[in-house]
Amino acid sequence: MAGHRAQWKGFIKFGEVSCGVGLYTAASTSERIAFHTLNNPTGNRVNRIFVDSETGKPVEREEQTKGFEIENGQYVMIDPEEVAATVPESDKTLTIDTFIPCSDVDDVYFDKPYYLVPTDRVSSDAFTALRDAMAKSKVAAIAQTVLFRRVRTVLIRAHGKGLIATTLQYDYEVRSSEKAFEEMPRLRIKGEMLDLAKHIIATKKEAFDPAEFDDRYEAALAELVKAKIEGRAAPKRKEIEVSKPDDLLAALRESAKAMAEASGSRSAANGNRGPARDARRAARPAPQQRKAS
Questions:
Q1: Can you say whether the dihedral through the CA atoms of 156, 159, 161, 165 is positive or negative?
Q2: pTM of the model
Q3: Where are the annotated segments for Disordered (predicted)?
């Protein structure tokens, strides 16, 4: 990928076939607005200093070590070199052990996406064969390797001209959905209320286009920074009222009505685009005719 540096370079191995690949970050937060911590009275940046929790004295970097709490306030010390020694040796190979249907992995296990790209022309043929075979078979691949100092499980899927490699959470890292929803009341919505909710969904159903979604938080931060620079008051957000059970049916009816009116307005606007364009063209002065020589 021109202009980008690979986060990792190695190989994909499936069966007895292998090819060189580079792993590139697919999502980045570098464009987000970032703040620094300042000293309010002086406006200067502050530095982070580690201090002893009991003595309050600063602890220099060479005196810092790792520790695991075995009970309240009691730790077993582990040297950083001992931690580094536990990192498995990497053979820089994403070894594919199995292929699964693309829909088999619950996306709650998804961690971070990366683009996989062949590193050289020699690897392109094997890479393309794997990509096209996976796409036509509608399968994803499961592989493991050492990435960023840890053994990572990776889900590999065909994506356009290349592959997407998504690191996966381990099972022990994903919290139980049953526990998350255990206090949910057992309710069944039916009749007009359910029909109106389904109607609203049908009215707003569209194809997913990520370009249509703005990061409203970033936009709000940018507006806040701009207001502060210009000496204006910070903008205030509107409070959202939660629909109460007694008002839910009325709110659904009002939503369905508003969406029907909006849909009609859009249809009318689309239908009038041609005549409006023709009217604008008609208002322009006619081009001068060349005289025959």
A1: negative
A2: 0.66
A3: 259-293
Structural domain tally of the chain?
2
Q: Which of 139, 59, 67, 58 is nearest to 96 (CA)?
A: 139
Confidence bin at 285 (pLDDT 50/70/90): very low
pLDDT, residue 114, reads 94
**Dist CA 154 CA 94 (whole Å):** 8
User: Which domain-ending residue is among 173, 204, 237?
Assistant: 173
Band of pLDDT at residue 265, cut at 50, 70 and 90: low
Q: Is the pLDDT of residue 189 over 70?
A: yes
- Cα 167 to chain centroid, rounded: 13
Asked which of 138, 173, 208 is the last residue of a domain, the reply is 173
Write out the H or E segment, with its range, that includes residue 226.
Answer: helix 216-230
Residue 266 in this model has a pLDDT that exceeds 60? no
Q: Looking at the structure, do residues 19 and 105 belong to the same domain, yes or no?
A: yes
Same domain, 255 and 154: no
Higher pLDDT, residue 182 or 22: 22
Domain identity same for 18 and 106: yes
Element (H, E) at 200: helix 192-203
The answer to whether residues 255 and 118 belong to one domain is no
What is the phi/psi pair of residue 19, to 5°?
-150, 150
> C-alpha angle 23/25/31, rounded to 5°?
160
Asked if residue 207 is part of any domain, the answer here is no
